[in-house]
Amino acid sequence: MTLVGWLQIAIVLALVLAAAVPLSAFIDKVMSGKRTRLSPLLLPVERGFYRLAGVDEAREQSAYHYTIAMIAFSIVGFLSLYALQRLQGVLPLNPQGFSAVDPALAFNTSTSFITNTNWQNYGGETTMSHLVQMLGLTVHNFVSAATGLAMAYALVRAFARSSATTVGNFWVDLTRCTLYVLLPISIIGAFALLFAGVPQTLAGSVDATTLEGAKQTISLGPVASQEIIKELGTNGGGFFNANSAHPFENPNAWSDIVETWALLVIPVASVLAFGRAVGDLRQGRAILIAMAILLVAGIAVLYWAEAAGNPLLTALGVDPSQGNMEGKEVRFGQSLTALFAAGTTGTSTGAVNAMHDSLTPLGGLVPMFNLLAGCIWPGGVGAGLYGFLVVAILAVFIAGLMVGRTPEYLGKKIEAREVKLAMFAVLIYPLAVLGFSAASVLLQTGLDSLGNSGPHGLSEIIYAYASQNANNGSAFAGLNGNTLWYNTTGGIVMLLGRFAYVVPVLAIAGSLAGKKKAPPSAGTFPTTGPLFVGLLIGVVVILYLLQYFPALALGPVVEHYLMLAGKTF
After folding, report:
1. Is residue 298, in this structure, part of any structural domain at all?
2. pLDDT of 248-272, one tens digit each?
C-alpha cells in the first residue's frame, strides 16, 4: 500500500460525496413531484407518457397495489426480453449473425436483467446482437434501476407520512426515476466515456493485423451508452465478456474513475435524500456514516491483502514488489482495483475491472462478504437504502429490548408485524445462498462446472449464488455457469433475492405508513449519533458475519492458511 494509492481512493470518494449532496436534493424534489431545472424540458415528455399509458399521476397506490404494479411490470419485462433473445436470429441490427439464444440461458439472462442483477453466463460480444444489447439489456439497465429507487421511496414515504393509506404511484416513480435521474446523467456520462476512449458504434467488428502478421477480428458496438448506465444504475452487465477490465469498456485510469464514481454516486445520494424526505438530514447522515465505515474497512482489507502479494507466486519467481497482480490490469494498479472491487460489491453493480477469482483468499473474502450481506453499503440504486433501513428497523428493535420500551424509528412504533417481515426478508438470503450451494456441492452436475477443487472451488459456488441472490452479477469467473443446472437455479435465486426480499419490505412500508408519527420523548432512542451508528454496524456483524462464518471459514479462510503453507488446489 502507498500514500499515492490511498490519495487516489480518497479523491474518488470525495468526488462521489461532492456530487451526491446536490444530487440528493434533486432526487428528493423529483420523487416529491416538485419542479426542477429539468422540468421545462422533461415535464411535457413525462405527461405524454402518462397519457399514453392511461396513468393518473395524482392518484397514489396502497402498498399492496404498488407491489402488484411492480411485479406486473417485471413480468412483462421478463417476457419481452426473453422473446428478444429467442428471436434474435431473425431480428435486425444483428451484424454478427448471431442465432437464437438457448432457452435456459435466455431464462437466466432475462431474470438477471429484470432483477438488476446482470449476471452473465455468456460473452456479450459473442452472444448478443446490437438490437438485444440496446433494446433489451440497456433498457432494463434503466428500468430495473428505476424500479429499485421507486421501491426505496415507497418505504421512505412510509416513514415520512403519518396515518397514510398510500405510499406513492409506482408508474409515476418509475417514470420520474428514469427520465429525470438516470437518463440525463447517463447522457453526460456516455460523452465522458467517449472522450476517455470508449467506443460507440453500430459496426459489428473490425479486422486488425497483429505484430506477427496474423489477422484478428475485434468486436465493436454501442459500448459507451451501455457502459455508463451499467455503472450508474448499479447493474453491471458488460458489453464484453471481460467486463470493465476490457480496454474498450474501461481503457484507462480516467475512465475507471468515471465508472467508479458512477456506481457509487446515486446510492450515496439516495441515502442523503432519505434524510431530506423525513425532514432530518442527520438521519440520512447516520446511515451513510455506517455504510461508509463498512465500505472503507472492506477497501482497506482488500488493498492490504492484494498489496501484500501471493507467496505462491513469489516462490515461482514472480516479482512481489507490485503485490498480487494476477488477474489485474496494470493501468489501474492495486488501489483503484481495490476501490472498484469493494465498490462494485458494496453496491449491486457487479462490474469488475479485475478478475475476482485471482484475488488472494482474504482479498476475495471482502467482495464475498459484501455479497452475502446483500450489497447494502452503500448498496444498489434504491436497493441499498431499503436494505439498510431493514437493518435499522432490527437495530432499533434490539435497542428497545435493551431498555424495555416499544422500539421506535422516526416516530413510528416498530412492532411485531414489522420485525417479523424484516426477519423474513433477511432470512431469504442465507436460505437461498447456502441451500443452493449445498445442493451444488452434493450433485455432480454442480461440481462439473468448477474450475478449482478444494476451498477455492467452494468459494466459487458460494460466490456465484451470493452474487445472484444479492442481485449483483459479479463472479469469481472460475465457475462455468452456462449449464442447465446453474442457469435454472441461478435464475430462481435471482428472483428470490429481488422479489422475496422486497415484497415484505413493501409490506413493512404499508404497515408503517398507516401509523401515526409520535413526537420524540425522553425515552426515545436517538438514531442520529455515534451510538446508533455503532449499533447498525453491530447488527450487520451479528446478522451477516456470524451466520455466514462457517461458509467463509471453509472457503477463503482455509485457503488463506493453505496459501501461507505453500499449498494450493
Report:
1. no
2. 999 999 999 999 999 999 999 999 9
Structural domains in the chain (count): 1
Domain with 76, as residue range(s), is 19-279
Decide: 461 and 424 in contact? Cβ < 8 Å. Answer: no
C-alpha cell read off for 451:
474450475
Residues counted in the chain: 569
Query: Omega of the bond prior to 378 within 30 degrees of 0, cis?
Result: yes
Answer yes or no: is 162 within a domain. yes
Residue partners of 397: CB distance under 8 A and separation at least 6: 407, 414, 419, 422
Give me the residue label for grid cell 397514489.
60
CA 437/CA 459 separation, integer angstroms: 10
Phi/psi of residue 174, each to 5°? -60, -45
Phi, psi values for residue 355, rounded to 5°: -85, 115
Pairing of strands 205-209, 412-413: unpaired
CB 349, CB 234: distance < 8 Å: yes
Asked whether residue 82 is assigned to any structural domain, the reply reads yes
In angstroms, what CA-CA distances link 287 with 233, 299, 393, 484? 21, 18, 12, 41
Cα–Cα distance for residue pair 521/225, rounded to 1 Å: 51
Is 544:293 a contact under the CB 8 Å cutoff? no
d(CA 13, CA 11): 6
SS3 label, residue 267: helix
Of 207, 278, 357, which Cα lies nearest the Cα of 527?
278
Model pTM score: 0.94
State which amino acid sits at residue 148: G
The alpha carbon of 103 is separated from its chain's Cα centroid by a whole number of angstroms, namely 26
pLDDT digits (tens, 9 = 90+) for 430-453: 999 999 999 999 999 999 999 888
Per residue in 289-325, pLDDT (tens digit) is: 999 999 999 999 999 999 999 988 888 888 888 899 9
Residue 87, in any domain of the structure: yes
